[in-house]
Design goal:
Distance between the termini: 58 Å
Helix content: 55-70%
Structural class: mainly alpha
Number of strands: 0
């Protein structure tokens, strides 16, 4: 009989193994890609390296966090030119009907 696992189950099991052994468990590239994609769904954005418990395993298998994100079809945060930033701020001001403020103001 073939045992089937959900992605959530794989993540929970790997976290338990990591805690029990005190070292990261073994992962396949496919599992790490699925973990990154699931984290992106949870957050609604590309996860930062510090938000992924399997970071060390990702570095070991992919060589860099950026390469792992690329393999998972996720992108790093976009870098904007000054002109793009001004354009985005102008669009937001028009949408809000006022000058945008920083978060918390």
């Amino acid at each position: 009989m073939v045992q089937r696992h959900t992605m959530k189950g794989v993540i929970e099991n790997s976290q338990q193994n990591e805690n029990a052994l005190g070292r990261p468990p073994m992962y396949t590239k496919k599992e790490l890609i699925q973990i990154l994609q699931q984290k992106e769904k949870e957050l609604g954005r590309t996860p930062k390296a510090k938000e992924v418990k399997q970071y060390k395993a990702i570095l070991k298998l992919f060589g860099s966090y950026k390469k792992a994100l690329e393999a998972a079809g996720l992108s790093k945060n976009k870098k904007y030119t000054e002109e793009e930033l001004i354009s985005e701020l102008q669009k937001k001001a028009k949408e809000l009907g006022r000058t945008p403020k920083k978060e918390g103001d």
